[in-house]
Amino acid sequence: MNERMNTAVDASPRTRDSAQAGAALELADVRKAYGTREALRGVTLKVDRGEFVALLGPNGAGKSTLFQLLTGLFNADSGRLAVCGHDIRKAPVAALAHLGVVFQQSTLDLDLGVAANLKFHAALHGLGGRHARDRVADALGRLGLTERAGDPVRELSGGNRRKVELARALVHEPAVLLMDEATVGLDPASRRQLLDEVLALRARGVAVLWATHLVDEAEAADRVVVLHRGQILAEGRPQALADQAGTATLADAFLQMTGGGGERSD
Ligand SMILES: Nc1ncnc2c1ncn2[C@@H]1O[C@H](COP(=O)(O)OP(=O)(O)OP(=O)(O)O)[C@@H](O)[C@H]1O
Questions:
Q1: Are residues 83 and 149 in the same domain?
Q2: What whole-number distance in Å separates Cα of residue 31 and Cα of residue 23?
Q3: Whether 212 contacts 218, CB under 8 Å
Q4: By CB neighbour count within 10 A (0-12 exposed, 13-18 middle, 19+ buried), where does 260 fall?
Q5: CA angle 230, 103, 183 (to 5 degrees)
Q6: Is the torsion defined by CA of 66, 198, 82, 225 positive or negative?
Q7: Of 66, 62, 68, 82, which is closest to residue 3 (Cα–Cα)?
Q8: How far apart are CA 51 and CA 210, in angstroms?
Q9: N or C: which terminus of the chain has fewer CB atoms within 10 Å of its end residue's CB?
Q10: Which has the closest alpha carbon to 176: 53, 14, 10, 8?
Q11: Is the four-CA dihedral 35, 36, 37, 40 of positive or negative sign?
């Protein structure tokens, strides 16, 4: 039985301590099993400030499980997870304050306006009044959504809805952004646009962990971490991984490493 954690978030700037040294995101020997099925088998991983890391894995690799642990939804069976030096288990409020997340499935309220969705999120992070309004306006402006601020989310295209989710994830100015298969269902142009928006966050020092099973998205990363059946098989710059595997492309290296398949049948 998984022990539920306290995920209440008080992410006001008061709790911000970005002067913390060390990695923005750090996992050490993280393990998680569902019954006898081992979803994560000793994952160790670091993401630095301003670094974009692609977590590349086929179906069933353990990407979503990793994100569930990082967002405090479940506890790891063992190992350590920390955000800006804050242990997720021991200091969940401080850790989550530094985290922005875009989940695979949309979590927007379709009947609320675009800005209202963001304001609700800001309030959850302890932001209110003018400060919240400014942050919301800033986040929407950055993603070119100012004109749509008053529109119900339901009226937006799939691509713009994803942008709203990204804007929402950035409202409290997190140091770490988690993107869990965030481009699923988007057309190629919208996919590229979202990826470019997130790549641009590096210039602001945001650390990004971008989970995907799409090799072309991983090719844009500073570093690629290949996750397969709960273990990291390789990590490095996209071309370095291909060189290491003796293949022409990252796609070929990925196929060679994972055998083209993901899920175990056990
Ligand atoms: N709640 C659960 N109960 C039992 N097994 C689970 C549960 N969630 C995930 N698993 C199993 O854990 C392993 C890792 O799954 P996970 O969803 O984390 O992988 P993933 O990389 O996100 O895959 P996908 O890309 O298909 O979403 C798989 O074998 C999956 O079947």
A1: no
A2: 20
A3: yes
A4: exposed
A5: 90
A6: positive
A7: 68
A8: 11
A9: N
A10: 53
A11: positive
Nearest protein CA to atom 25 of ligand 1, as residue: 59
Q: Which atom of ligand 1 is nearest to the CA of 35?
A: 4
- The beta-strand segments (E) located in 57-194 are 78-83, 86-87, 99-102, 176-180
- Same domain, yes or no: 167 and 188: no
Q: Are strands 223-228 and 231-236 parallel, antiparallel or unpaired?
A: antiparallel
Q: Identify the CA nearest to 99 among candidates 124, 116, 119, 65.
A: 124
User: Are 139 and 74 found together in one domain?
Assistant: no
- Tell me the CA distances in angstroms from 126 to 9, 84, 121, 174, one per residue in order: 8, 19, 9, 13
Of 31, 47, 27, 48, residue with least CA distance to 39: 31
Judge if 92 and 134 occupy the same domain: no
ipTM: 0.96
Residue nearest (by alpha carbon) to ligand 1 atom 24: 59
Compute, in angstroms, the gap from residue 42 CA to the centroid of ligand 1: 16
Please give the distance, rounded to the nearest whole angstrom, from the Cα atom of residue 181 to the centre of ligand 1: 14
The range of the structural domain enclosing residue 167 comes to: 111-173
244-256 pLDDT, tens per residue? Answer: 999 999 999 999 9
Residue 210, phi then psi, degrees to nearest 5: -115, 105
What confidence tier does 127 reach under pLDDT thresholds 50, 70, 90? confident
Do 126 and 12 touch, CB atoms closer than 8 A? yes
Residue 34 Cα to ligand 1 midpoint, Å, equals 9
Q: Is the CB of 263 under 6 A from ligand 1?
A: yes
User: Alpha-carbon dihedral of residues 147, 152, 158, 160, nearest 10 degrees?
Assistant: 20
Q: What is the atom index within ligand 1 of the atom nearest the CA of 59?
A: 26
Looking at the predicted structure, is the pLDDT value of residue 44 above 70?
Answer: yes
